[in-house]
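Why should sequence recovery work at all? Because a backbone constrains its sequence more than one might expect. Tight turns favour small or flexible residues, buried strands favour hydrophobic ones, and helices have their own preferences. The token representation captures these environments compactly. In the example below, the structure is given first.
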């Protein structure tokens, strides 16, 4: 169990380090090739409920991805919400911001 090794909090950070022989004259004479992979990491904490009421989340579908000229946004909103859509390019720069106001349905 995770809590047997570290105190559990809101953030978990893991570091994985793979290294190679970089110096001639040491192990593998500087000629090894590192291949590292990480697969099937599961963290379980059986803390249970913390007393916060569940909130319904809006479900959205955006297609096609990636988009060139036309982008479709389909939303299922269980209750009215103020909606703002931001579109970013591959570099993370915002290229469009559209405030749609209070929507439901």
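From this structural description, the recovered sequence reads:
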């Amino acid at each position: 169990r995770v809590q047997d090794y570290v105190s559990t909090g809101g953030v978990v950070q893991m570091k994985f380090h793979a290294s190679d022989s970089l110096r001639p004259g040491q192990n593998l004479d500087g000629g090894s090739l590192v291949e590292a992979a990480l697969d099937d990491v599961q963290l379980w904490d059986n803390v249970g409920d913390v007393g916060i009421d569940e909130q319904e989340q809006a479900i959205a579908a955006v297609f096609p991805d990636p988009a060139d000229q036309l982008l479709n946004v389909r939303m299922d909103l269980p209750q009215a919400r103020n909606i703002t859509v931001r579109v970013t390019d591959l570099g993370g720069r915002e290229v469009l911001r559209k405030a749609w106001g209070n929507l439901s349905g």
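A few observations help interpret the result. DSSP finds no helices and four strands in the chain.
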